[in-house]
Amino acid sequence: MILRTVTSFSLRGGLFRATASCSRFYSSATNIRNTVYALSSGHGRCGVAVIRVSGPSCSDTVQLVCRRQGLPAPRHAALRRLFDPVTGEVIDKGLVLWFPGPGSFTGEDCAEFHVHGGTAVVAAMLDALGRLPGLRPAEPGDFTRRAFLNGKMGLTEVEGLGDLIHADTAAQRQQAVRQMEGDLGQMYGQWRSRMLKCLASVEAYIDFSEDENIEEDTVVRATEEVERLGQEVEHHLSDNRRGERLRDGVHVVIVGEPNVGKSSLLNALCQRPAAIVSPLAGTTRDIVETGINLAGYPVLLSDTAGLREAGDVVEKEGVRRALDRASKADLRVLVLDSPSVLQSKLPQITWVDFLLDHMRNLGLTTAESSCSDVMSAAACGANTVSTASSVRTMMSSGHDDGGFLDSSALRSAADTLDNVIVVLNKCDLLEEEEGCVFPCAKDLGVTVCSVSCTTSQGLDAFVATLADHVKQLCGDPLCGTPSLTQARHRSHLTQCLHHLRTFMQQVANDDLVLAAEALRRAMRELGHVTGAVSVEDVLDVVFKDFCIGK
Ligand SMILES: Nc1nc2c(ncn2[C@@H]2O[C@H](COP(=O)(O)OP(=O)(O)OP(=O)(O)O)[C@@H](O)[C@H]2O)c(=O)[nH]1
Ligand SMILES: [Mg+2]
């Protein structure tokens, strides 16, 4: 059932980002000398609340709160009565954990108080800690920032941890765990050390080329290695934004003429009446967005205004927004009204041409029709059928015959339709022999699903098809080399690749000094990604999405 694969999810980082934005982020690395504390478990009444403390005053804090009952054994939970150190009042009885640095998460002395999760208990604990000298409330991401500054985590691992906290779906979680465990950082680190070796070779050659100990092919081997590195970086960059899509959500837009059932489809997918449905054409004016979890993958779904020559200024703006959203989407779901398609009087036209014509009329493409305009009548003849019978053929056979596939014109038409899923809605209104026998058909790269939003017929198959497309766009986060996940990485890696190419050019120009400088710059770009070179300016950006207590 559709219900199995689709669940709503809150859009990326809603809760945590709101929390972070309420507070000015703490940016000075020197302030890690303070001891910080925070409620690390969620806010609100709960069974157990975890309060974390990190910093040099940590052991004193534990002993004061535990009234000199002594520090628990490292990394062992100890049951203690917890006191307000100033008033001497018992606040609660709970577990205390002591993590001496540097073997702790932050790399400095840390402690955790596991107390009963009532509002008054948590408030009393935080209040008591706040009155101790040298302690201050933690800022968002303070603990992880300390871990980074103390060399416990690289920057990509920190980002992986941030993504894990924000992960709404299984695939996002898998990608984030992989990154947090260092897969991506290791790959970048290995590239950097390979570049360092090349740089050492080139510099040695510059400094000691007269020396007979330097082998003649040193520079040749370094150049070959840099070329390989360039290819690897280029390959990593040309991943069709898989990792970024998975992290941020795949943008799917529902488009089509008014009244074809776009809003009904959106509501069926998110299983709630997110958009108004009515028999009046032009009901939806603005974009209606909702996030769904599609078989473990995050999808940001947009319903749009029906595309037509708009009557008034509001609808015109709605149509403009719809077309704009469609042009930026990763996937477009083009909804058509099945009875209208079957009754279409378009003369002698192929199914692909019909779709291209339709999309052009709606303003969704400027691509020319393939068959009627480009192919000769002879080549096209065998496949030239009326729209109605073309649709019927497609529905019953699942694909067209092989002649189509050889045409480059049709291939380019298929490319235009590549990120389009066609939904033939309202199939409940067709005669039995006309529709819905094979709800999903693949035709020249365009996927066609026959559904009814009213009876739910074909919706499961459509959801499965949509999920397949989304998975293809994101890839399997557990397979292959780890994906690039952030625009920040892309920007530095693009620069890195540019410098590697400059290295090759300078070697070809016989200018090894400039070549070495290019290699140093390439390494610096990689260092910005992993945090191996000074990144103070990017830390605020990276940590701003963290929640307090992490
Ligand atoms: N019989 C039938 N009616 C449907 C189906 N899907 C939607 N409808 C009806 O078609 C009408 C239009 O549905 P909407 O979902 O509002 O269509 P829309 O494409 O969003 O329309 P606009 O917002 O005006 O562009 C409503 O009366 C729906 O109940 C279907 O599968 N079968
Ligand atoms: Mg609508």
Automatic annotation (TrEMBL):
Matching CDD domains: trmE, TrmE_N
- Subcellular location, in the record's words? Mitochondrion
Q: Is DNA-binding a UniProt keyword of this protein?
A: no
Q: Please state every residue range assigned to the domain named TrmE-type G.
A: 249-471
Q: What are the record keywords, sorted?
A: GTP-binding, Nucleotide-binding, tRNA processing
What is an example of a GO molecular function annotated in this UniProt entry? GTP binding
Q: Which GO terms describe its biological process?
A: tRNA processing
Keyword field contains Nucleotide-binding: yes
Q: What family does the database annotate?
A: Belongs to the TRAFAC class TrmE-Era-EngA-EngB-Septin-like GTPase superfamily. TrmE GTPase family.
**Protein's name according to its UniProt entry:** TrmE-type G domain-containing protein
Predominant location of this chain? mitochondrion
Cellular-component GO terms for this entry: mitochondrion
